[in-house]
């Protein structure tokens, strides 16, 4: 494991912990897209179906369990514990527009036409677009709390670091995973405008980040 992969995993973990602490401390999930969190839970579930059948390392197994547990804990807090604060009126992104294409692609583009491999491929494609309901929610409401933008920043940083990880592995090991790399690049592109606004507004102490309302 190289430093980029480790830093990426840490950034991913930090992002989820920031989100959980935000919800728990404020006792509110306002501004958080429950749909995005359900999609992320689905990503981890379909990716880690081999949890009890394939052992790579203790680190790998622990991280799988941690990400699964945190993903479902987040969904629980949004839809059960603090359901009254959930902004269902604005969290209206049509997730079927994400699920149908990713399911179709996972059957057409995979490394082996087996259930586990198709589900893994589906999780890679879905992760690339799972943040879209959250970005749509922020755009629709016109602003985001700074703590929510910190979550998004670390989530985007995780993908950017994984791109660096793939570049490193290609040059040192000759390893290239076309599905993961292309999906990761697509996901990172979604964060580009957000990164710019994060640096120019949030890091300069302006608190909530205002975004243009959708037309």
Summarize, please.
The protein is mainly alpha-helical. It has eight helices and two strands, in the order ααααααβααβ.
Description:
- With 215 residues, the protein is mostly helical.
- It has eight helices and two strands; from the N terminus they run ααααααβααβ.
- Strands 1-2 form a two-stranded antiparallel ribbon.
- The longest helix has 28 residues, at 146-173.
- It is globular and about 45 Å long.
So what's the overall shape? globular
H/E element order: HHHHHHEHHE
Largest sheet: 2 strands, antiparallel
Which class of secondary structure composition applies to the elements? mainly alpha
Gyration radius, rounded = 17 Å
Give me the side-by-side strand order of the main sheet: 1-2
Mean pLDDT: 87
How many individual helices? 8
Low-confidence stretches: none
What portion of residues belong to β-strands? under 5%
How many distinct beta strands? Answer: 2
Cα(first) to Cα(last) distance is 45 Å
Helix content: over 70%
Indicate the topology.
Layout: H1 3-26, H2 34-47, H3 58-81, H4 96-108, H5 115-129, H6 132-141, E1 143-144, H7 146-173, H8 178-200, E2 209-210
Antiparallel strand pairs: 1-2
Keywords:
8 helices, two-stranded antiparallel ribbon, mainly alpha, 70% helix, 2 strands, globular, 215 residues
């Amino acid at each position: 494991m190289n430093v980029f992969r480790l830093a990426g995993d840490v950034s991913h973990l930090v992002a989820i912990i920031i989100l959980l602490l935000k919800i728990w401390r404020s006792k509110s999930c306002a501004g958080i897209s429950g749909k995005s969190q359900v999609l992320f839970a689905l990503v981890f579930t379909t990716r880690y179906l081999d949890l009890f059948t394939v052992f790579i390392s203790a680190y790998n197994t622990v991280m799988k369990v941690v990400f699964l547990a945190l993903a479902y804990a987040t969904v629980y807090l949004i839809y059960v514990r603090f359901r009254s604060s959930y902004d269902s009126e604005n969290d209206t992104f049509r997730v079927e527009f994400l699920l149908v294409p990713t399911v179709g692609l996972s059957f057409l583009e995979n490394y082996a036409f087996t259930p586990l491999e198709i589900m893994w491929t589906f999780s890679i494609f879905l992760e690339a677009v799972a943040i879209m309901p959250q970005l749509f929610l922020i755009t629709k409401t016109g602003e985001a709390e700074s703590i929510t933008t910190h979550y998004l920043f670390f989530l985007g940083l995780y993908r950017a670091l994984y791109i660096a990880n793939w570049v490193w592995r290609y040059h040192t090991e000759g390893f290239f995973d076309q599905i993961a790399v292309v999906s990761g690049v697509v996901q990172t592109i979604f964060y580009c405008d957000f990164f710019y606004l994060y640096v120019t507004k949030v890091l300069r102490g302006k608190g909530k980040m205002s975004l243009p309302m959708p037309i």
